[in-house]
Structure formats: structure tokens, C-alpha cells
Design brief:
Elements: H1 3-15, H2 22-34, E1 45-48, E2 55-58, E3 65-67, H3 82-104, E4 108-120, E5 138-150, H4 154-167, H5 169-175
Antiparallel strand pairs: 1-2, 2-3, 4-5
Helix pairs in contact: 3-4, 3-5
Protein name: OsmC-like protein
Organism: Methylorubrum thiocyanatum
Pfam families: OsmC (PF02566)
């Protein structure tokens, strides 16, 4: 694909924002209200590709989602690293919640963008480097939301952002303690 063709595709997506269907959202919401005790197990399978730190992640019947490391962390720089993928998942989950709640309120969504960034000390090098006492993993995450939504006041948009954060499954998984087990099988 040429650079010109790629730019045209991006410009097309910038002009058209296709929101989710409000009636289908309403039906899904009603299903959740009908039985709030339903818990669904979601799964992913990660396979080391054998090329440095490239990993293939299989979810449902989708093509593999690749996760890699940048050259500074001994990777091939072919895909986001695990922390970047986590930030992308976090931003996407918040964006989904923003869109769903804006649509449910009858507002017109023309654009949503979530900037995600976080601070991490990587000197332990996955447990092979400096093992002195320090936090492992992200210590601070910052999300900035840009909204192009018609029909809502600035105060309503602030409330929308707060509400989406309160109900975002990924944001709450990152923010709150969660039981995690790791075992060899």
C-alpha cells in the first residue's frame, strides 16, 4: 500500500464515525439487568513464537495478536510490548464505555480518543537485573480523554468520563486488587 493510499484511508476514517446501534445496546443492557449475577470466563492463549520476545496471542477464533518488545528491551519492535498492550486495552475499554454511555443518553458521537501513558521502572529486567526493593510494574497511569460528542454540556461530558471510569472492567482490573494465580501445568 502506498503512503498516499494509507493517508486516504486514515482521512476517510477521520470523516466518518459509525457509532454502535442504540437499540441493540438497549437490548444488551436489558439482558444485563435481567440477570446481574452472570459471570463469563474469557480466555487468551499466549505462545512464544521463538523469535526473541515475539509472542502470538490467540483470542476466540481471531488471528493471532502479536506482542513484542522494542530493540532496547531485546525485541524486534514488530508490535506493542506487554505494557503498551495493557495500556491499549485500558484505553480501548474506557473508549467503549464512553461510546456506549453517550449513545445510551441519546448524544451524537463524532469522535473519541483516549491517550494512555504510564510510568514503569524496568531496571529489574524481568527478574534478571537489579533486584533491589522497588515497585514492579506500572506505578502511575494517566488517561486523557478527547471527546467530540454533540448534545452534551461540558458538565455532562465530565460526568460521562467519570461514569465510564467507574464501570470500565479493564480500568477496574488495573485499579483494584484482583486474585491472580500463576502455576506450571
Amino acid at each position: 500500500m502506498t503512503v498516499t493510499a494509507a493517508k486516504e484511508i486514515v482521512q476517510t476514517f477521520e470523516k466518518v464515525f459509525e457509532p454502535i446501534d442504540r437499540e441493540r445496546l438497549h437490548a444488551l443492557s436489558e439482558k444485563g439487568r435481567a440477570d446481574p449475577s452472570v459471570v463469563k470466563t474469557v480466555r487468551a492463549r499466549t505462545v512464544a513464537e521463538g523469535r526473541r520476545f515475539r509472542h502470538l496471542n490467540y483470542i476466540r477464533n481471531l488471528d493471532a495478536h502479536i506482542v513484542d518488545e522494542p530493540p532496547a528491551l531485546l525485541g524486534d519492535d514488530t508490535a506493542p510490548n506487554p505494557t503498551e498492550a495493557l495500556l491499549a486495552a485500558l484505553g480501548t475499554c474506557v473508549a467503549v464505555g464512553l461510546q456506549a454511555n453517550a449513545i445510551a443518553r441519546g448524544w451524537t458521537v463524532k469522535g473519541i480518543e483516549v491517550e494512555s501513558e504510564g510510568d514503569i521502572n524496568i531496571t529489574s529486567v524481568w527478574g534478571t537485573g537489579d533486584l533491589s526493593e522497588k515497585p514492579v510494574g506500572l506505578t502511575t497511569v494517566r488517561l486523557k480523554v478527547h471527546l467530540d460528542i454533540e448534545g452534551a454540556s461540558p458538565a455532562e461530558l465530565d460526568e460521562l468520563v467519570a461514569h465510564a471510569g467507574q464501570w470500565s472492567p479493564v480500568l477496574n482490573t488495573v485499579k483494584n486488587p484482583v486474585s491472580v494465580t500463576l502455576a506450571r501445568v
